[in-house]
């Protein structure tokens, strides 16, 4: 029987990096993208519009760069320990990311993640077109996916945990039974139930253990 669900952001939460910043650095537009990313994470820009503006800057980039990007991604400390603990204790794990499925799916597969939702880059002739395909992972969609996955598992809200680092995670954090701000921006810390400021994802384990014991 499933005991609970953790839904977490990817960039600067599961992993140390912001993938779109790595894409930008590789393609020579790193500073322009980083500036837009920071404004979005601080809540000063609409996330959907800022994402589209950043992706436009990647027009013409070859998909052969993805392997280079993956080689420069590092899991935050304790990531595998946390996910293994959750699976051993009948929790499911979902990743919901404003990043890109071309990268996120590989990370998820390696960690045996149960659910994944991320953006799709439009590709033509092996190059990025500067556009996105399908629905965009907005703050509201992050919340919607938490609810969808929770309902598919037939578990109560109280048995859900959400974790993220930026303003685009606020709705998801507020929807969860327990909201965790991980190395987070001030806007997210204001609404979270608990903060993890150590940079170690494994510091979530005692919080999950208490939830399990309380049940």
Automatic annotation (TrEMBL):
Protein's UniProt keywords contain Glycoprotein: no
Annotated InterPro entries: HAD-like_SerB (IPR050582), HAD-like_sf (IPR036412), HAD_sf (IPR023214), PSP (IPR004469)
Keyword Coiled coil belongs to the record: no
Pathway where it operates: Amino-acid biosynthesis; L-serine biosynthesis; L-serine from 3-phospho-D-glycerate: step 3/3
Active site (catalytic residues): 9 (nucleophile), 11 (proton donor)
A single MF term (Gene Ontology): L-phosphoserine phosphatase activity
Residue ranges crossing the lipid bilayer per the database entry: none
Domain of life of the organism encoding this protein: Bacteria
Reactions this protein catalyses: O-phospho-D-serine + H2O = D-serine + phosphate; O-phospho-L-serine + H2O = L-serine + phosphate
Sorted UniProt keywords: Amino-acid biosynthesis, Hydrolase, Magnesium, Metal-binding, Serine biosynthesis
Any one Gene Ontology BP term: L-serine biosynthetic process
GO cellular component, one term: cytoplasm
Co-factor(s): Mg(2+)
Signal sequence segment: none
The enzyme's E.C. designation: 3.1.3.3
Class of enzymatic activity (EC top level): hydrolase
Recorded family membership: Belongs to the HAD-like hydrolase superfamily. SerB family.
PANTHER family xrefs: PHOSPHOSERINE PHOSPHATASE
The protein's name in its UniProt record: phosphoserine phosphatase
Species in which this protein is naturally found: Streptococcus urinalis 2285-97
């Amino acid at each position: 029987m499933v005991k609970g669900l953790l839904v977490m952001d990817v960039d600067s939460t599961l992993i140390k990096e912001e993938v779109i910043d790595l894409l930008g650095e590789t393609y020579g537009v790193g500073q322009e993208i980083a500036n837009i990313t920071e404004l979005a994470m601080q809540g000063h820009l609409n996330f959907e519009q800022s994402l589209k503006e950043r992706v436009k800057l990647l027009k013409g980039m070859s998909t052969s760069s993805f392997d280079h990007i993956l080689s420069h991604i590092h899991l935050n400390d304790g990531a595998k320990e946390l996910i293994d603990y959750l699976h051993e204790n009948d929790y499911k794990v979902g990743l919901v990311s404003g990043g890109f499925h071309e990268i996120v799916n590989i990370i998820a597969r390696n960690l045996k993640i149960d659910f994944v939702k991320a953006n799709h880059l439009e590709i033509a002739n092996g190059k990025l077109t500067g556009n996105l395909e399908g629905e965009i992972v907005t703050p509201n969609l992050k919340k919607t996916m938490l609810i969808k996955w929770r309902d598919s598992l037939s578990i109560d809200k109280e048995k859900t945990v959400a974790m993220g680092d930026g303003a685009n995670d606020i709705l998801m954090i507020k929807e969860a039974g327990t909201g965790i701000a991980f190395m987070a921006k001030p806007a997210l810390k204001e609404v979270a139930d608990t903060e993890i400021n150590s940079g170690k994802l494994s510091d979530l384990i005692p919080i999950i253990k208490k939830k399990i014991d309380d049940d």
